[in-house]
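INTERNAL AUDIT FORM
Audit reference: QA-55
Scope: verify that the stored structure record matches its stored sequence.
Auditor: D.O.
Record contents follow.
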Amino acid sequence: MVATALYAIPEFSGSLATQEAAINRTVIEYELNGQTSEFTINLSAYDPTAVISYTGSPTIADAVDAQQLYNIPGSASEFEEAVCTYIEDHGGTVTSVETISES
């Protein structure tokens, strides 16, 4: 019953873990097959070197074996490098890589 009451109050709605995780992310902008796209790597709020999720091409994520890189300290730079390498190996161009950390 308490949980129901908390969800009714706007200040308590949403997932704290998701909100914290969204604070740290790496955004890779690229051009591939004539299209401009973005691949975002969401990083742990507790360890900004660990990947917790991504948004972007499932084809790229499958190719770089994203599931093997989740929640492993230091995996963020390996994931970023693998995504950029995939894009370039398939004739694309990485136009920018930006890591965003907000507190």
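Auditor finding: record pair retrieved intact. Residues 75-89 form the longest helix (15 residues).
Action required: none
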